[in-house]
Amino acid sequence: MTHPLRQHIEEIIDLTDEEFEYIFSHFETVKKRKHQYLIQEGEIAQKEYWILKGCVKSYFLDENGKEHILRFAMEHWWITDYESFVIQTPSNIYIDCLEDCELLYISYENRDKLTSEMHKMERFWAKKSKLGRIALQKRILSLLKNSAKERYDLLLEQYPKLFQRVPKKMIASYLGVSRETLSRLNS
Questions:
Q1: In the chain, what is the straight-line distance between the N-terminal and C-terminal CA atoms, in Å?
Q2: Closest by alpha carbon to 56, among 94, 91, 99?
Q3: Which of 142, 140, 144, 136 is nearest to 155 (CA)?
Q4: Model-level pTM greater than 0.85?
């Protein structure tokens, strides 16, 4: 059976068995329990994670301690604090596990090494980065132009399983609405 990471990478580039083995040798596996952090504010993100199993959230806390969820990530999604990871500066966000998780991670050094050694992986991460920017742009546009109901419906349409895995108060935070407003949208 083909490793899920290989299947994921091969959605963008083709790999030989030797190439995948070499790429995979740069990753480590880690298990985290529900509520454990992958990254905390103030740390420098040294790892980029790929989720084998589980669900995580990235968020920041405002000056009043209110949580603002930036994104969720589930199986076969990548996550880190990209500003911190790329520039190697202290993180402004937290990333923690909403469920018990099994993750693969690649260190900053190993990703840089693979990117410089393998043009294919440079292309892979460039494509993933572009797709991430597109998703971010869509999210920003949705927040700016869509009503709360439209944002809710779009999230439900795109990620129906998220609603079974994430508490409603977190969905409300992600959508930028109160829990009460979310209840009205849901009815």
A1: 43
A2: 99
A3: 142
A4: yes
Per the structure block, which two tokens stand in for 20? 């995948």
Boundaries of every domain in the chain: 4-134, 146-187
Give the DSSP H or E segment for 52. strand 47-53
Beta-bridge partner residues of 69? 59
Query: CB atoms < 10 A from the CB of 3, how many?
Result: 13
From first to last of the 187 residues of the chain, give the pLDDT tens digit: 889 999 999 999 999 999 999 999 999 999 999 999 999 999 999 999 999 999 999 999 999 999 999 999 999 999 999 999 999 999 999 999 999 999 999 999 999 999 999 999 999 999 999 999 999 999 899 989 999 889 989 998 989 999 899 998 999 999 988 888 878 877 6
> Residue 143 contacts by C-beta under 8 Å, 6 or more apart in sequence?
151, 176
Contacts 24+ apart (CB under 8 A), 138-144: 139/71, 143/176
4-134 homologous superfamily:
Jelly Rolls (2.60.120.10)
The answer to whether 115 and 125 have CB atoms below 8 angstroms apart is yes
Share in percent of the chain as helix, strand, coil (round to 5): 45, 25, 30
H-helix or E-strand containing 116?
helix 108-117
Number of helical H runs and strand E runs in the chain: 9, 8
